[in-house]
Specification:
Length: 169
């Protein structure tokens, strides 16, 4: 009976030890932002967004320049106009200012939408590639080691080279 009990305890210890060793997770890391920025699609998307931004900036500058010229003209002519005409011109200037501000707000919203539209598939492609490589190499967790994400020490496997190879970049 004592030998059976000893055998049972030994078996339990062996099973417990092997379960503990199997429960340890393999952890890797990757600087995901660096990966995304290395992707050719990111560079072309960034270029497209910058081009659109420059277009909006140029249009807004032209609108502001026209408004400034109108204000200057109205200021010079103010003494030769009636109070009613000056009031009407002041309201016109205020309406134009509002129009410019509305256009600026819409342009910013459009830029944000365009950035999301262009960047979402790029981030998804990077995430999919990271998952594929991590699973192929048996990692249960992949930490993002991009500066400022909270990972202070990353001694585990860096998947950057393998994921770049998978993405052919």
């Amino acid at each position: 009976m004592k030998q059976f009990r000893t055998l049972l305890v030994a078996t339990a210890l062996i099973i417990g030890t092997s379960s503990f060793m199997n429960a340890q997770s393999k952890v890797a890391h990757i600087a995901s932002q660096e990966l995304v920025e290395a992707m050719p699609a990111f560079k072309s998307a960034k270029s497209e967004i910058e081009k659109l931004n420059k277009t909006y900036d140029a249009e807004i500058r032209n609108m502001v320049l026209e408004l400034q010229n109108t204000i200057k003209k109205y200021s010079q002519e103010a003494e030769t106009k009636t109070d009613e005409e000056n009031l009407k011109r002041q309201q016109e200037v205020q309406a134009t200012e509002k129009s410019i501000n509305d256009y600026r707000t819409n342009a910013l919203q459009d830029l944000q939408k365009k950035e999301i539209e262009l960047m979402k598939p790029i981030y998804e492609k990077a995430r999919t590639a990271i998952q594929k490589v991590a699973r192929a190499q048996g990692f249960q967790y992949v930490l993002d080691s991009t500066t400022g994400t909270g990972v202070i020490m990353a001694d585990g496997k860096n998947l950057m080279a393998d994921v770049k190879k998978d993405l052919s970049i």
